Amino acid sequence: MVRVDPARPTQVYWLETRPAEGGRYTLLRTELGSHGSPSEITPGQQWNVRTAVHEYGGGAYAVYDGLVVFSNWETQGVYLIDDSAEAGRAVVRIGEMDDKLRYAAFAIHPSKKFVVCVREDHRESDIEARAAIVAIRIPSTEDRDGGPVRAQKDVVLYDAADFVSSPVFSPVANEIAFFVWNHPDMSWDATTLYRAALALGEDGAPEPRLAELTAVAGGSSKREESVYQPRFDADGVLHFISDRNTGFWSPHHVDAQGSVVSSLREPIRAEFAEPEWMFGNSSLQPVPGRKHSVAVAYAKDGAARLGVLDTQTGTIAHLEVPPWTAASDVQVGALRSGEAVVVVKAGQPTAPTAIYACRIDGGSAVEVVGEAPDADKGDDYAGYLSVPREIAFETRLPPFGEHGSGGAGSDGGPGIAYAFYYAPANSDYAGEAGKKPPLLVVSHGGPTGAADTALKLSIQFWTSRGFAVADVNYGGSTGFGRAYRKRLYGELGRVDVQDCCAAALHLAAQGLADRRRLCIMGASSGGYTALACLAFRPDVFAVGASHYGISDLELLAKETHKFEARYPDRLVGPYPEARALYAQRSPLHYADAVACPVVFFQGLDDRVVPPNQTSAMAAALRRNGVRVALLEFAGEQHGFRRRENIVRALEVQLLFFGRVLGFSPAGAIAPLPIDNE
After folding, report:
1. Global pTM?
2. How far is 128 from 138, CA to CA, in rounded Å?
3. Residue 509 φ/ψ, nearest 5 degrees
4. pLDDT band at 476 (very low <50, low <70, confident <90, very high)
């Protein structure tokens, strides 16, 4: 997550993950235009700038005029650092100091007397953890210098919804905006954007109430609307992202008459936002000092676009940037001269993702602000990088006939799905003459998410070893509008399975893959899709890999965390009314149909997909005589963050696939027991 200090716009902050340090996140800062090494704000193993709100986290820090507020993983508490202090950075804990409370999406008030944020209260229940917008008092400099700060009660400003997100302040008045949603919706289904006045006491701290609470957008029973990213500009105009009318997330604002209007003169069939699995997304940011100007990023035709939107004319002045295919974390900063720049995190297929500063008035001038310390340049991989291309394919699956429903087009014929195809690439080696490569189909997680083509060494690992890869955007993926997202509603285990299988068979029919060596892998819900493909389409794939994948949908509905507790209602059906359908769509109940070998990977501290989802499926296949390997990682949660575990998972999967497909990987890989071999 990248942030520019609004009061010191030359200062850019970002989080960096450290796989070699147990996967912790640390906060870094640099000055725009300085070309110097960044400063680490949170050195030391005791600091891990990460939050567990919604289990997925995000929005773990905020900065204003050198004050940094952040959540630390070990306690989930709120901590304060004065990064502008000449005497060094003393870290103090603030707020209620109860480890059953989690915090995210911080916004520091310009007075620096308090911070507003999302609080998730687990003191009474985990599955029904209460969400609230709260204010936390910031102790004075004198109080901070006097040693540990006394715990103070959080001031609850709003707690009338199941979920709350993204509080922001207006610079013009003591006004706040935020959005909320309720079960059974997810935030990409329907949210309500509110604005309200803060009631401040004589000491400048907020009172426990909001005045003039007004719904701005969303919240209508007549239409679904997903509203994200509220932002006030310098004049107090409220901007935000909404998918009203077009079904695509795009910029909107509240005009002088108080009406919500599109900020674009003509609609663009492109997404200006991503689904908010995590707090802190930013693809829209007002430009200080420029009336009616908003920096925006969006993706269209496989390319990331960056520009400045004039909300009066409704037109975008696009900036000249490298051939990026992904752009996020849009901020607006300034050089020492005062010249405005757009700061963005961006990536492309042949260069590592980095943080860039782009001059608004300076043509194509682009500066690298920050990158991973051990990031290899694209030139270091010359000859070893596969550049993907997008493919579109029909989703019918002869000879599977009746099972091909759910993905049909509006005319009842086959639907169209999408994938990024990577050919094998290694300048030192060539495939055997006359042989087609094995194909690895990747099913992304979410499932409300998307594959993109920013450089992923986890994909290049396979293409450099002779595999073709298809990264599939099956029906239900984002980036194609609400209608495409909704293809998966009620059809989980059918549309995603159909599209992944169709991608594999399409590429084999095109002569781009060996039909006998089709492989599939996925993580989280992508792991579910991989297992479902093996259970419901056993004739397609030769081997599979599940990384913390779901095997039993009913068990997930019973045990999952609050954020996703009603997500299956949309994807499968209301539970327990649709209990039979949950069983019908669960790979665990069809383990007898799985004929090909499967390797499983699981973090033992995973609270999103508990380890029993993996162990039960592996045990069922083991009993059936299927070749199975299971690798479990102590201390890992939902996704692997430690360097040694990331490497081990890649190598074990390659070793397992080699045993099945008949090749021996180069290099020394520690063996893993394979059952029923």
Report:
1. 0.94
2. 29
3. -65, -30
4. very high
